[in-house]
Write a structure and sequence with these properties.
globular; about 400 residues; alpha/beta
Length: about 400
């Protein structure tokens, strides 16, 4: 059985999925797993195609101190115990910079170019690249594909792409990229099946999770996004502030004596819902808290979503549908209800019963726009891109390059 391995690596976890390649290029998820607690309490968990657990193992700290070690452990388990030898590996890479507007086959040159964008996504890029290097070193003939969260937004017009700064900086890559592109690309594709009459119209998608952003789409293409040069911009997130006056950064440096490294760490790890509430960066904990500052953090999150919905509707010159996705968007009926209240002036109205059931369509009969909940699947999107690139490249039969 031919399989595609999809890897999504973070600072303390490596998530992976295995897809079987079936007739006519169809993909079927066979295994979903992760190693988390890297460097502290490493644990491998995995489930099969039907969701039943197939592994749950703890390891000593020294056995899995970093992401490459986690990749090695997961790879050995897949190869030796499950006899899975993928024909290719697809990776989520957060930042493709100005160089990449589509998935790309990886070689050492690609890795070197992607390393230049580490400072633009310090929470993600180094960890995205670690398993790529590990596989390049251990299995140099195994095809690997990088799929970028920025690529979907490269359809932006120059007006949406530029900052009001000298053109030379834009030429160097200082521009508005947008992120969560794999999620938005999946939702755009899913809408062609869920609501084909809406899929090519003016749609705002809210990817609400620990990382949060919104995207304006027309004809299934990204027109505008709340995120820009880095993944700090736009909506408040779990630990990131979202939109921030650049003067705040200057103040932190000049008046608080913070170094650039300290400011970076502060903005990526100590702000957002965590900073506002002083309680948690987890929306579930905030919703359960009676602390007034937790309420403030939730109110602020909802308020900024409403403001950005207005901005994106202006970019679209109207609105034909609104979509919730990602962890908070898919699971918090309370947040969805509060956001839809903010959309009242755009014609949005909720069906409370459907919302409480996490239904696909949660708008009421009196709503002028349909409102959907569409679970995202970035990993499937990566698997599709990987298979497509593998099948179209001029090379030998991919079965001959299987890891043995």
């Amino acid at each position: 059985m031919d399989t595609i391995l999809v890897v999504n690596a973070g600072s303390s976890s490596v998530k992976f999925q295995v897809y079987s390649v079936e007739g006519e290029g169809r993909l079927r998820r066979q295994i979903k797993g992760q190693i988390d607690g890297i460097g502290s309490r490493p644990r491998l968990r995995a489930s099969g195609a039907n969701g039943d657990p197939i592994a749950d193992r703890a390891y000593p700290i020294e056995a899995i101190p970093d992401v490459p070690a986690a990749m090695g452990t997961a790879g050995e388990w897949l190869r030796n115990e499950l006899r899975i030898h993928p024909i290719a590996v697809g990776h989520r890479v957060v930042h493709g910079g100005p160089d990449y507007d589509r998935p790309v086959l990886i070689d050492h040159g690609v890795v070197a170019r992607l390393e230049r964008f580490v400072t633009l996504a310090p929470l993600h890029q180094p960890h995205n690249l670690a398993p790529i290097r590990s596989i390049l070193a251990g299995f140099p003939t195994l095809p690997q594909v990088a799929c970028f969260d920025t690529a979907f937004h490269r359809t932006h017009s120059p007006l949406a792409d530029h900052y009001a700064i000298p053109h030379q900086l834009h030429a160097e890559g200082v521009r508005r990229y947008g992120f969560h592109g794999l999620s938005y690309e999946y939702v755009a594709s899913a809408l062609t099946q869920i609501a084909p009459e809406i899929a090519k119209r003016r749609v705002i998608v809210a990817h609400l999770g620990s990382g949060a952003s919104m995207c304006a789409m027309n004809q299934g293409r990204s027109v505008e996004s709340t995120m820009g040069f880095t993944a700090l911009d736009g909506l408040p997130m779990g630990t990131r502030p979202g939109q921030l006056d650049p003067g705040v950064v200057l103040y932190l440096i000049s008046e608080k004596g913070m170094s650039a490294a300290n400011v970076q760490n502060f903005l990526y790890r100590d702000c957002g819902l965590k900073g506002l509430s002083g309680v948690s960066n987890d929306m579930r904990e905030l919703e359960a808290s009676v602390d007034p500052k937790a309420k403030l953090a939730i109110d602020y999150f909802v308020y900024r979503i409403g403001l950005n919905a207005g901005m994106l509707a202006a970019a679209l010159q109207g609105l034909d549908a609104f979509v919730f996705t990602a962890g908070i968007g898919e699971n918090s009926a309370n947040i969805r209800a509060r956001v839809v209240e903010q959309l009242g002036w755009l014609g949005g109205a909720l069906d409370p019963a459907e919302n409480s059931r996490n239904s696909r369509l949660i708008s009421g009969s009196d709503s002028r726009i349909p409102i959907y909940v569409v679970p995202t699947d970035e990993e499937l999107m990566i698997a599709k891109h990987t298979l497509s690139l593998l099948m179209t490249r001029p090379t030998t039969n991919p079965r001959q390059e299987r890891v043995s």
